[in-house]
Design goal:
Number of domains: 2
Shape: globular
CATH class of the largest domain: Alpha Beta
CATH architecture of the largest domain: Alpha-Beta Barrel
Strand content: 15-25%
Length: 361
């Protein structure tokens, strides 16, 4: 009974709880909330209650995309569980897939704090984390341990890979190669991340020649394996039409398995938050509701230009089931939430799945 009351409180009272949590620094709250969930999940009865409360499994929600079976199309975007620490808890909350990372060859602290900021009036976040992670070797060990302990799990795990801050762009391909090789046996698919605005010079790698050097090299290694892994590219929402056309052409040339659209934006137009607050926050990638329209536009454009031949994972401004339907109608095969998870709470996946099931009836 106490467990049931706790779960009901977590579901119904989350808006109140969120207001309390929003009184504290975002990054510290992130770890406090997830570590608390991790601790509570060690109690078998409570974990079972969490599973029953937050998961909604139905055959009509299942999808087979790039040869992988997803129990539902709702994933958690990279950057939330950078170090593959919370996979059990995220699976309990119903996610069909989780993208860990961004992973770099060497562990790095990321940018100076504070580096994560809330914009409640806009249902948005600004972050300049800077690829803070434990490094590929430590994360690899953690993933192997998780897979060994959860061999029957249906959770799909993606590996989002990037370069270290100290690695010059001309040598970036080496970092992507290291991460790809080290994680090959412990993730289900890969995402090459060259679109974060928080590593100096990284977005320059989205230019056609630089990008081709990286993904062609990784794909050559990939196809040297008996069973290659799906290889995807994550792109920024700030690309021009010409740059998007280059991405499309390169995707066919390199035979990419998919695209992730989109990462965070450096744009700041149309925000409700006071301009002085935005100026004080400074640089970083904006995510959440303000990105919704642009993300859908990019998904729609890519889907049409690729003639729906390359699967797209949509990310940006997803809060509700209707938001997911909008992305799927634009041409996406799967979606990822991140900022919406923060604002909507632990019921977000189940609520979205309910809407999708209703639409399928």
């Amino acid at each position: 009974m106490l467990y049931a009351i706790y779960i009901l409180y977590l579901r119904v009272m989350y808006p109140f709880l969120r207001n309390v949590l929003f009184c504290f620094p975002p990054e510290e709250v992130h770890y406090f909330a997830m570590n608390s969930l991790k601790l509570l999940s060690t109690i078998p009865a409570l974990k079972n209650s969490l599973t029953q409360s937050f998961q909604l499994n139905h055959s009509s929600l299942e999808k087979n995309i790039f040869g992988l079976n997803f129990k539902n199309p709702i994933g958690l975007g990279a950057g939330f569980d950078k170090n593959a620490v919370y996979l059990n808890e995220l699976e309990t909350l119903g996610f069909g897939f989780v993208e860990i990372g961004t992973v770099t060859p060497l562990a790095q602290q990321g940018n100076d704090k504070p580096r994560l900021f809330r914009l409640p009036k806009d249902k948005a976040l600004i972050n300049r984390m800077g690829f803070n992670n434990d490094g590929v070797n430590e994360i690899k060990k953690r993933l192997y341990q998780w897979k060994n302990n959860n061999s029957s799990s249906a959770l799909i795990i993606g590996g989002n890979i990037g370069k270290n801050k100290i690695t010059p762009n001309e040598n970036a391909w080496k970092d992507y190669e290291i991460c790809f090789n080290e994680l090959f046996d412990c993730v289900d698919y890969f995402v090459v991340n060259v679109s974060s605005p928080n590593t100096p010079g990284l977005r320059e790698l989205q230019e056609k020649d630089a990008l081709k050097k990286i993904i062609a090299h990784v794909q050559n290694i990939n196809h040297g394996n008996t069973v290659p892994k799906p290889l995807l590219l994550k792109i920024a929402p700030d690309l021009t039409q010409e740059q998007l056309d280059d991405i499309v052409a390169l995707s066919f040339e390199i035979k990419l398995d998919g695209l992730v659209a989109t990462n965070t934006t450096i744009a700041r137009q149309g925000l409700q938050t006071n301009a002085s607050v935005i100026e004080t926050i400074g640089a970083g990638g904006l995510s959440g509701l303000p990105l919704q329209k642009r993300s859908t536009e990019v998904v729609d454009y890519l889907a049409k230009q690729t003639q729906h031949k390359i699967p797209i994972i949509a990310s940006g401004g997803i809060f509700t089931g209707n938001d997911v339907k909008e992305k799927l109608n634009a041409g996406a095969s799967l979606v990822q939430v991140w900022t919406g998870f923060i604002y909507q709470g632990p019921s977000i996946v189940k609520n979205i799945c309910k809407t999708l099931l209703t639409a399928n009836e």
